[in-house]
Amino acid sequence: MTKTHLISGVTSGIGQAITKRLQAKGERVVPIVRSAAHAEAIGADAHILCDFGEPQRVRDAVRDFSEQLDSFINCAATTIGKAIFTSTLEETQHLLNVNLISPMMICAELKKNMKDGGAILLFSSQSAYRGGFDDAYNVSKGGINTFIKCMALKFAPAVRVFGIAPGITLETRMTRERKADDLAPIKEQIPLKRFGNINEMAELVECLLGPAGSYITGAVIDINGGNYLR
Ligand SMILES: NC(=O)c1ccc[n+]([C@@H]2O[C@H](COP(=O)([O-])OP(=O)(O)OC[C@H]3O[C@@H](n4cnc5c(N)ncnc54)[C@H](OP(=O)(O)O)[C@@H]3O)[C@@H](O)[C@H]2O)c1
């Protein structure tokens, strides 16, 4: 039977690469999008329409969604690009709504949707461990890591819940917004001397969803070229 994956963040970067990879295998992607045109663009036959900046609407939309799922893959996220000293309360709350509260609200409604043997995969970041410039973003990813543990316990044994914590990944909106001059010295510090790419992320996702990931739950897997070792 064709597998069905609910995926956020399909319009760009890692989420787009995962979508292409799963669709190329003949699997079905139901995207969570902010515009119906984004679902049409990937040829989806169903979608959930909501903005992660509005967690109650996100929760209501997922509550109304009745399809059975092999996986939920959360890629949607945003950055402020500022430290807490200069961020407004509104910017901070919006970021936490998008990166943390809305993914939590989705998982809160997914018990009825997940098939036995299914998986929930939430994207984290190396910045959850090492900190960084954008404080709200780093905190949101630390929260995701803790939430993964909580959900792993609550969804077990039927559904596995895990995360991926990438280092800097090229071909994404997040890295396109950064200046080449800022990135060059960071690359030199990475033991593997390069940044990651979206296809490496998508390949790891495919692997974790398959038999190789069948005994993994509650864990967050690092994929960062050795940039952060813990
Ligand atoms: N890129 C990196 O270097 C890096 C490093 C570590 C971790 N990560 C994590 O990996 C995941 C994927 O990152 P990426 O860099 O591939 O993403 P990206 O290219 O920046 O794309 C962000 C995605 O999130 C969606 N999104 C943003 N705000 C939203 C909102 N309010 N409601 C619904 N969707 C929204 C965007 O959809 P729209 O088209 O509607 O805006 C877009 O599809 C994220 O969780 C990110 O934190 C990335």
Keywords:
single chain; 230 residues; alpha/beta; Rossmann fold; seven-stranded parallel sheet; 9 helices; binds NADP nicotinamide-adenine-dinucleotide phosphate
Explained architecture:
This protein is of the alpha/beta class. The protein has one domain (4-223): 3-Layer(aba) Sandwich (Rossmann fold), CATH 3.40.50. The protein is built from 9 helices and 9 strands. Helix 1 packs across helix 9 (198-209) and helix 3 (55-63) packs parallel to helix 4. The protein is globular. The termini are far apart. Bound molecules: NADP nicotinamide-adenine-dinucleotide phosphate (NAP).
Report the uncertain regions.
none
Tell me the major beta sheet: 7 strands, parallel
Helix count equals 9
Radius of gyration: 17 Å
Helical/strand content category: alpha/beta
CATH architecture: 3-Layer(aba) Sandwich
Q: Give the strand content.
A: 15-25%
Per CATH, the superfamily is: NAD(P)-binding Rossmann-like Domain
Note the overall shape: globular
Share of helical residues? 40-55%
What string gives the helices and strands in order? Answer: EHEHEHEHEHHEEHHEHE
CATH class: Alpha Beta
Instruction: Report strand order across the widest sheet.
Output: 3-2-1-4-5-6-9
At the fold tier of CATH, the topology name is Rossmann fold
Please tell me the overall pLDDT. Answer: 97
Bound molecules: NADP nicotinamide-adenine-dinucleotide phosphate
How many domains in all?
A: 1
Outline the fold blueprint:
Layout: E1 4-8, H1 13-24, E2 28-33, H2 36-41, E3 48-49, H3 55-63, E4 69-74, H4 89-109, E5 114-123, H5 127-130, H6 135-155, E6 160-166, E7 169-170, H7 173-176, H8 180-189, E8 196-197, H9 198-209, E9 220-223
Parallel strand pairs: 1-2, 1-4, 2-3, 4-5, 5-6, 6-9, 7-8
